[in-house]
Description:
The longest helix has 13 residues, at 6-18. The protein is 25% helix and 37% strand. By secondary structure, the protein is an alpha+beta fold.
Amino acid sequence: MSKPDTLLVEVAALVESGRSNQMPLTVVTGGAVITGRLAPEAVWRQRVSEVLADSAHLSGFSGMFTDAAPEDGPPTHLHFHVARILQGTVGIPETGGMYRVAIDDVSAWSMGDFSYSDQ
């Protein structure tokens, strides 16, 4: 999208202001369908930092996710947790992932998350 969808920006802003991580959302970006729950950026960064800190090989990257100061202005990214990329009838990864998606890159979206089947 050349101009971000103002309604989607408002949804992201409400998630940021409420510090909630329960807003289900599905987006289409770059031809991929991503479905999951939105989290405030600070919560998302903290969780990514914790996952990296627990890794013997990646712990050096942990600090960069918690050291960044929040940006002023409206949100520019959506921060998904327990999210999956839908591929046919399968959600990848099975356990859910942490995705950061630029709002400018979202071509379609829907409230709610889509069910999937790994059978």
